[in-house]
User: Fold this.
Amino acid sequence: MKLPEIAIKVGCPQWICKKCGKARERIAKTEYDVLRKSRIQDQPKQKMRKDNFGFTKGAVARSKHYTLGWTDCRCRAGWEPGIVLDPFMGAGTTAVAAERLGRKWIGIELSEPYCSMAEERIKRETQQLKLFRE
Assistant:
């Protein structure tokens, strides 16, 4: 389930405007703490690219991400979940992932056995999600 969830998070907005369809985007701030320059001895041999001082060109850093807010389209029409399109639905894995992430979805499948399988799976998963959310 991880792969479809990653694709949905990257490719489908969490919220879209009900009127104009514009995606709501996160306004974020990222801070980096450089811990130290990475030394040659810390790197696997195949990754070594040293400068003249025995250090690699990169540094070891830790990042922190802060959400400052969300964009607004100024329509004031409210927000609804983004829509995931799966043109080859198969067993419904993408639809289940979309449900888990709170997105709407549209699935297309030509094979009747797969349609039945997907329908059962989605029904079972959405019932579990309803119990979990209550």
Observations:
- DSSP finds three helices and six strands in the chain.
- The chain has a mean pLDDT of 85.
